[in-house]
Specification:
Largest sheet of chain A: 6 strands, mixed
Strand order of the largest sheet of chain B: 2-1-5-4-3
Largest sheet of chain B: 5 strands, antiparallel
Shape of chain B: globular
Radius of gyration of chain B: 17 Å
Strand content of chain B: 15-25%
CATH class of chain B: Alpha Beta
Structural class of chain B: alpha+beta
Helix content of chain A: 55-70%
CATH topology of chain B: Beta-Lactamase
Largest interface: A-B, 91 and 80 residues
Structural class of chain A: mainly alpha
Number of domains of chain B: 1
Distance between the termini of chain A: 75 Å
Strand order of the largest sheet of chain A: 1-3-4-5-6-2
Radius of gyration of chain A: 33 Å
Distance between the termini of chain B: 31 Å
CATH architecture of chain B: 2-Layer Sandwich
Oligomer: heterodimer
Shape of chain A: globular
Number of helices of chain A: 47
Number of strands of chain B: 7
Chain lengths: 950, 198
């Protein structure tokens, strides 16, 4: 940074110094330390008695700078809390508009919308509004637009209604926007001012009219002035030109999108479009798109009629955009075409011919090969709207043009992996459009496409995993609706299990599996992720995956082995049944012949398969259902025996550097603010210390899911295992959470979306096979790459909290006490405590599992069925057995939904007075239905319980 | 409506992040996500991006199933100017707004604006932005009007700087490096300044 203080324009030397320190820092740690130190220094400065206004302003500017350059998760929430009173004070007593602006800006940027101190601003804003000084009034109105909330409405509404008629246009336009903002909380406010707003539409100041148009677009159709507003806006429309650069023209078009273009003005809109074709150098692209969006409000017959009357075609007027080399023009062309129903221009309606010429169609089809994904997807969407059969033909054409191979010989010119990956993404884009909302058809498409892509790879034995395809499919499945996800996963796994049945008999050695490596990796990932949802038996899936194990490449074997292990855990947990006999044998065989990495993996799998308890504990510790998360959990279990010094190895300088580098790029792991200057202090220890005094009087609560997985503001227990999870995440470059942020507040820890985590996961699943390809490289496959997004945890938490809505977790009374006392009380906790009413007792999951496994199978002991009513309702019914059964004393005990075993199911234990038990598992179905499964020891009270269920 | 205005450099470091709707995740995370979306796009592609991924950060766009977050961006030298909008806003209008109004206003205020101007004067940048956009709606597009408002505030700032730094050469306030020929930012020529790699 080659700028001196004098020439920098910095507010002060302190401001210059911190900017220079940070911008010239040679490492992220150095910058973080400087930021942490500066926050501390500013805190001290502000804590001194009565800092002057200018000092206060300087400090706030520095803090704003720090907040803007801090990396995600570096600053714990509330880091700037100490400065809020000073910011409020500056906004109140600032001598100049400049000073007041800094105060307001600080609050706007750093104070949360529900912060209690926001109330303190109401009076300041009101005073500024009534000051009579245009500068202060404008500033107050600016902040009112940003700060609008229900508390402020009564204080300012009268003033605002007056100000929309103020003499000063800068105030008028801001007052209109402020009114619009306040109307979100008090809808009647807009109707009170609507008459004036309609007048302002024709204000002599253009900027006021622009604001009035924005407010008009928000007017409800029920407003008495809506009709007149629509009339005025349509009138204004007739005054605009296609070449007009004024913001007013664009705003009129946008407003008409809301209030509607009257039919009588359609010819004028067509005229404007035609004039754009005549003056291709001076038209405004935004106006052109706006006009087409207005046309989309009218039906095809009306548009056809209007075009006939005008003897023109709106779409034909866009031809010049096709001839352009500017990609933005191509975007504009496609966006305009997507606005108009194909019946108007594509020749899909009888009597209406295609308006495009052959070269234009060719050019549009050429966009299918565009490097720009957005342009390509728009083209696909356009073609799908015209006729989905075009896409099917296009798909068939691409697939048939791929080099084919028979089972015995490879294609003459196999395609390289990079090309195939790009092609896979394109093909799946098409399949996504062709199979919207149909998971089974999507799965079918995936199978077919991957089959062809595998063929195109060449020699059957050397097929590679297509990382792009894995990522694309997993992300799409994850982003889809629940039904789609389950249907897709079920269909894919059914393909595998069916292939097992059709090819019954021993698997010959070294024969490649019937599915390609990419398909197997996807299936393995989906089998793990949707293990609790799919209708395919885990046992059958394990058998099928096991069959594919021997002939697969190491990279696929790795995914299959992990998947087999996870499904084995499910078989134990679900049915208490044993694993198919051939599994261990097959894994053993693979181990004998494999290289180093797979040998280790096989050993790991065999170890866990023979240690049922340990495997269950790993599954219990999962915070998400994904395959990478499971791998991570296994690794954590492996490191359990290590010492703390080993675990926190990332505190060594070299590891810090690698972690920091990862942060700077992937921006993931979080380091708490204080950790920058007090690294040796364990973050989890510091959190525990803070809670120790508060809760010392109580016995530590047993963990329940809502607290275990830490929602926003939630606390984590400091169990060794979880500490290790944290330790691993700190050392992992992909994981956006640190012990500190997890414990203190997870709002920064939620820094990874489902999409992102899936992308990482898919990348991990691709297992770098594309680039590695060699078995020896597998040794470098660091388990730390298997990371998982916090979003998944959040989703799980959400599910858990909804699942435990009526049901208390274990150790409820103590949890409840702490929950009530804790400032970090969560919804899930509240839900759980709420469920304590009604005399239900609780049971530990282990106890339930033990009893469940001990209860006999068979017709008399085990029953299952569907019943109407949500899980909550059924739980209440069962609870009624406990409360209302007068002939005999019955107790109902409940284990939470989200704690393994049987995650996602409510576990209810009905205990009769004679000690006989009936165990019930309830799983939520669709539309308030519930799947129940019941086990009892002989006759017991099963019939009474079953009566409550049916 | 405009939901976010972001400026970050080619390393992904945010220089301005203004959100007009509540976020579901931290602002820094959103900036990083958007940076990852944009920085991977090679030159020569259109300036628009359909970004369903942002639903996880900004919340789902309700109503119309076709309704999605759209990203409009422009790259100038070391900086990306990014707007996140919904379908009520014209993405092509926003593209014009970035270049013809926002960047032009910055350029007038700072005279050949550079990344360091945004670093040392981000409060001024916020002010300029506030003159252009309020509450996610475009307030003013007349660059002369915006410039007049900003200059008025800059005058006060300059006086304040001079009084706080009596030995300075009077280069405070806006246009901080007018006399320093060693650090031209190369806004249009694409040269990098001496800003660190963070």
């Amino acid at each position: 940074m080659d700028t001196t203080f004098a020439s920098s324009g910095a507010l002060s030397r302190a401001h210059y110094a911190i900017v220079r320190q940070v911008e010239e820092a040679s490492s992220v740690q150095e910058a973080d330390q400087a930021l942490a130190f500066e926050v501390k220094r500013v805190h001290e400065r502000l804590a001194r008695a009565a800092p002057t206004i200018s000092k206060c302003k300087e400090c706030l500017v520095i803090l704003l700078y720090i907040s803007s350059v801090a990396l995600p998760g570096f600053l714990v929430p509330g880091s700037f809390e100490f400065a809020f009173p000073h910011a409020l004070n500056l906004a109140e007593v600032g001598r100049t508009i400049e000073e007041k602006r800094i105060g307001y800006l600080f609050c706007a940027e750093l104070m949360s919308t529900d912060h209690e101190l926001r109330l303190m601003m109401v009076n300041t804003l009101r005073k500024d509004l009534e000051s009579g000084s245009p500068g202060r009034m404008c500033l107050a109105l600016d902040n009112l637009i940003a700060f609008a909330n229900e508390d402020i409405v009564p204080a300012v509404q009268d003033v605002i209604l007056d100000l929309i008629s103020h003499n000063y246009p800068h105030i008028r336009r801001r007052a209109i926007l402020a009114l619009r903002s306040l109307a979100q909380f008090e809808p009647t406010l807009l109707s009170q001012g609507s008459e004036t707003i309609v007048k302002r539409l024709q204000d002599r100041s253009e900027s006021v009219a622009v604001s009035a148009l924005a407010a008009t677009a928000a007017l409800p159709t029920s407003d008495p002035n809506f009709a007149s507003a629509r009339l005025v806006v349509n009138g204004l429309f007739s005054s605009i030109g296609i070449s007009s650069s004024s913001a007013l023209s664009l705003r009129i078009l946008q407003c008409l999108q809301g209030v509607g273009l009257s039919e009588t003005h359609v010819p004028f809109a067509l005229d404007l479009i035609r004039s754009s074709a005549c003056s291709t150098s001076s038209y405004k692209p935004a106006s052109l798109l706006g006009l087409f969006r207005l046309l989309s409000q009218h039906t095809p017959p009306k548009l056809i009629e209007a075009e006939k009357a005008q003897e023109m075609s709106a779409v034909k007027c866009l031809t010049h955009l096709l001839q352009s080399q500017d990609p933005n023009d191509h975007y504009l062309y496609l966006a305009c075409l997507l606005c108009v129903d194909p019946a108007v221009w594509a020749g899909t309606q009888e009597g209406r011919l295609l308006v495009l010429e052959a070269w234009e169609v060719e050019r549009v089809m050429g966009f299918l090969e565009s490097d720009d994904d957005y342009i390509r997807k728009m083209t696909l969407t356009l073609l799908a709207r015209i006729d989905p059969a075009i896409l099917s033909t296009y798909l068939t054409h691409i697939l048939s043009s791929l080099p084919a191979s028979s089972s015995s010989q490879s294609p003459a010119t196999p395609m390289d992996l990079a090309t195939l990956n790009v092609l896979a993404v394109k093909l799946f884009d098409i399949i996504e459009l062709l199979t919207t909302e149909e998971g089974d058809r999507y799965a079918q498409g995936v199978k077919e496409v991957l089959g062809r892509l595998d063929e195109a790879q060449g020699t059957p034995g050397k097929k590679k995993v297509l990382q792009g395809a894995v990522e694309k499919v997993l992300v799409h499945v994850r982003e889809s609706m629940s039904d789609f996800r389950i249907s897709c996963a079920t269909t894919l796994l059914t393909y595998i299990t069916e292939s097992l049945q059709s090819a019954a008999g021993p698997t010959p050695e070294n024969v490649p599996p019937s599915f390609g490596p990419t398909f197997l990796v996807i299936a393995a990932a989906l089998a793990v992720e949707y293990v609790n949802s799919v209708a395919v038996s885990p046992k059958e899936t394990v058998k099928a995956l096991c069959r594919s194990l021997k002939g697969s490449s190491p990279i696929v074997q790795d995914a299959l082995l992990i998947s087999i292990l996870r499904l084995a855990a499910e078989i134990h947990l679900e049915d208490g049944a044993s694993l198919p006999d051939e599994v261990k044998g097959t894994v053993q065989e693979v181990q004998d012949k494999a290289g180093t990495f797979i040998r280790k993996r096989c050993a790991q799998v065999l170890k866990y398969l023979s240690d049922d308890k340990r495997l269950r504990s790993v599954v219990r510790g999962l915070s998400s259902t994904t395959l990478p998360e499971f791998v991570q959990a296994l690794e954590i279990q492996e490191t359990k025996g290590r010492t703390n010094s080993d675990i926190y190895r990332d505190d060594t300088p070299s590891d810090r550097n690698s972690s920091a580098n990862a942060r700077s790029r992937s921006g993931s792991p979080n380091v708490g603010l204080a950790s920058a200057d007090a690294r040796n202090a364990s973050p989890s220890k510091s959190v525990n210390a803070s809670s120790k005094l508060r809760y010392a009087a109580y016995e530590p609560p047993k963990p329940i899911a809502s607290l275990r997985f830490g929602s926003s503001g939630g606390q984590r227990p400091s169990s060794p295992q979880l500490n290790k999870v944290n330790a691993i995440s700190r050392s992992s470059s992909n994981r956006p959470s640190s012990p500190r942020s997890d414990a203190g507040s997870s709002s920064y820890g939620t820094g990874r979306s489902e999409y992102e985590s899936t992308a990482v996961e898919a990348a991990s699943l691709g297992l770098a096979a594309v680039s590695l390809g060699r078995l020896d490289s597998m040794d470098s496959l660091d388990s730390r790459r298997y990371s998982v997004g916090q979003g998944q945890k959040d989703r799980r938490l959400k599910r858990a909290s909804s699942g435990t809505e009526l049901v208390p977790g274990p150790g409820l009374p103590k949890s409840d006490l702490i929950s009530l006392d804790s400032p970090f009380v969560t919804d899930a906790t509240i839900g759980a405590s709420g469920g304590s009413e009604g005399g239900e007792d609780n049971i530990s999951s282990d106890e339930f599992e033990k009893i469940w496994n001990e209860l006999p199978e068979g017709e008399r002991g085990s029953q299952r069925g569907w019943c109407d009513g949500s899980v909550g309702e059924i739980a209440r019914r069962l609870q009624g057995l406990g409360n209302g059964h007068d002939d005999e004393d019955m107790r109902v005990r409940v284990a939470p939904v989200d704690v393994p075993p049987f995650v996602g199911e409510l576990k209810v234990m009905v205990i009769a007075g004679d000690g006989r038990v009936v165990a019930v598992r309830l799983k939520a179905g669709e539309e308030d239905s519930c799947l129940w499964r019941l086990k009892s020891d002989g006759l017991g009270k099963a019939s009474a319980v079953r009566a409550a269920l049916v | 409506m405009i939901h976010a205005v972001l400026i970050f450099n080619t390393s992904g470091l945010p220089r301005l992040a203004k959100f007009y709707t509540p976020l579901h995740q931290s602002a820094e995370t959103v900036v990083q996500k958007i940076f990852s979306l944009i920085s991977t796009r090679p030159a020569g592609l259109c300036n628009f991006l359909d970004a369903p991924e942002l639903e996880a950060f900004l919340g789902p766009k309700g109503g119309d199933p076709d309704e999605r977050w759209r990203v409009v961006y422009r790259n100038y030298a070391t900086l990306y100017f990014v707007f996140v909008v919904d379908s009520s806003e014209s993405e092509l209008g926003i593209l014009d707004l970035i270049q013809q109004v926002f960047v032009e206003s910055l350029d007038r205020a700072f005279e050949n604006v550079c990344e360091l101007d945004l670093v040392f004067h981000f409060d001024e940048v916020h002010h300029i932005l506030a003159e252009v956009i309020q509450g996610g709606l475009v307030l003013e597009t007349n660059v002369d009007e915006i410039d007049a408002c900003v200059q008025q505030a800059a005058k006060g700032r300059k006086e304040s700087f001079a009084s706080a730094n009596p030995l300075s050469l009077g280069g405070g306030g806006l246009n901080p490096r007018g006399g320093n020929l060693k650090t031209p930012l190369g806004w249009l020529t694409g040269k990098l300044t001496g800003v660190g790699a963070r």
